[in-house]
Amino acid sequence: MTPFLLGIVSSLAASAIALGLGLLRGSRPLWWLIAACSSFTGTGLRRVYRRQASAERDIARDLERARWIKVLAGRGNVLTREAFSPVWTGEFSPDSVQVLLPDSQARQNSWLDQRSHDVQRFDPGYTRTLLRGQVRTNMDYLTHVTSARGNVELREFNLPNTCRVIATDRAAFLTFYSSSTHGRNSPCLYVRAPGLLYSIALQQFDTAWTHSSPVHPLPRP
């Protein structure tokens, strides 16, 4: 687990960078300044979206050109929306798609339950059962919609639920979850390859992938 802990430390450092650019969040005319600073520091940061949900149009654009896609999500709602629809229908045809969602079946030492507990502090409706059910529903959707696609692999993880990563061979959208707000309301970083933050995003994904379990496809009718 040491690599994962190192990844968390790296994530905290990246969060500090994002906080320092807080005044620039969501301001398109100043994105050029973020990019200029990024080039000088080697972080790879290109944009900061004030809210994670604001990035979905640009996510769809990047997926269209991707050779491969890696997704690490805390719940997976974005995977059922328009941004990813062309991936599941075959309109976009990357060489491989790897998807990681929390293990909704884990009972002991469940990090999904810990996330539920954190969210319930500011949203009483988010019980452990509700979040588990949402993750399970999204995984069921993905299992059905990808059953005929040989380039998609689904896996489940039971590790600290600290961030969302949507990465391609070109760039990554990186969101660090807060214990005081929903992920959809958290800032989202757009980072390009190569760069420190892009490497951190892939490290987060690869570590979780190593400690995950495969989800077997449903039998076709």
Model description:
This protein is α+β, with helices and mostly antiparallel strands. It has one domain (2-181, 188-214): Endonuclease, Chain A (2-Layer Sandwich). It has helices at residues 2-20, 31-41, 56-64, 85-89, 111-120, 128-145, 196-210, and strands spanning 45-49, 68-72, 96-102, 152-157, 163-168, 171-176, 188-192, 212-214. Helix 1 (2-20) packs antiparallel against helix 7 (196-210) and helix 5 packs across helix 6 (128-145). The termini are far apart. The model is unreliable at 11-27 (pLDDT under 50).
Overview in brief:
It is built from seven helices and eight strands. The protein is α+β, with helices and mostly antiparallel strands.
CATH topology: Endonuclease, Chain A
Mean residue pLDDT: 83
| Number of structurally distinct domains | 1
Rg, Å, rounded: 17 Å
In the CATH hierarchy, what is the architecture at level 2? 2-Layer Sandwich
Q: What is the fourth-level CATH superfamily?
A: Endonuclease Chain A
Structural class: alpha+beta
Helix share, percent: 25-40%
User: Approximately what portion of the residues adopt beta-strand conformation?
Assistant: 15-25%
Biggest β-sheet, characterized?
8 strands, mixed
Query: How many strands appear in the DSSP assignment?
Result: 8
The strands making up the biggest β-sheet line up spatially as 1-7-6-5-2-3-4-8
H/E element order: HHEHEHEHHEEEEHE
Name of the top-level CATH class: Alpha Beta
Q: Count of helices?
A: 7
